[in-house]
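Case study: Stage II sporulation protein M.
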Amino acid sequence: MEQRGGDSRWFRRPFQIIRANLRAYLALNAMAYGLFLVGMGVGLMRPELTGANVVSLEQDGTSELVTWAMSNAWLFSLIILAVNAIGLSLVHVLLPSAIVPFGGIAVFAYWAFDTGVTLAPVNEVTALTMIPHSLTVLVEFQAYVLVLLGAYRLGMSWLRPRTVGARNRRQGYVHGLRQVGWLSLPALALLVVGAIYEALEIIHLVPLLLS
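Here is what the predicted structure looks like once written out:
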């Protein structure tokens, strides 16, 4: 019974944090998806920006890496997961937020907008590609929102420790890190699902639509 209760806590605790911070969670959802859609709108109005982003991906080797990894769906999934979990979630959101309160939220806001510009359906190929890729965006952005909520809770606990029952900012910081850890569990699960689907989508669904 004790083991079962512990397993249940791993499942329930992240959702308890979300319910306790529902307004912040909804606001972060609106920001993440909203900036992505705004970026797509800007890309549609100024397709030269989308073209410039695509050229940048080719020049920094990203496109070449994608082409190489597509030969193996599981390897491709692993690379996508590493980029999303370590490159974006950890390095660009959580680490800046651990140094400057809410710093990673601002970094993500720019990334969401820029990603929207890059994925803007400026021609028939990108429009067809976005049909299956929309689910990837939905799932992976939801994972990022959970990471953002963790960054938000870290900042609030750090700056206002008494609101979480901490005596000082050091204790508030530690409390915030615990909440980051809890929220990272469902975020990682979503990123795993998103990475597998994205790899299969790019390798199999997109070529089928474009054929």
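For the exam, be able to explain this: The chain is about 90% helix and 0% strand.
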